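Input record, target 12 of the design panel.
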């Protein structure tokens, strides 16, 4: 994933490399919501075939989310960002 992504209005955005097609990058946007019950909801979109044809959460969306979660303290250091 390119760390040139962004966080806007609660949405994560970035480009994630395709695992099956060398040299191909997918545009991904994801929003992570935590419910009071403790459950987490992942909403977003990707320009890959799995999402555009099947409308299902794809590997690219999960990867962007995982990279953000693992690095969130580094990425938002110095910003006043609220993560729900």
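The sequence produced for target 12 reads:
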């Amino acid at each position: 994933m390119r760390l040139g992504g962004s966080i806007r209005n609660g949405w994560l955005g970035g480009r994630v490399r395709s695992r099956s097609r060398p040299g191909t990058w997918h545009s991904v946007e994801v929003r992570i919501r935590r419910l009071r019950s403790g459950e987490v909801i992942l909403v977003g979109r990707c320009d890959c075939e799995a999402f555009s044809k099947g409308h299902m959460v794809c590997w690219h969306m999960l990867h962007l989310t995982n990279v953000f979660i693992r690095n969130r303290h580094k990425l938002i250091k110095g910003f006043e960002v609220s993560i729900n």
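The helical segments are 49-54, 59-75.
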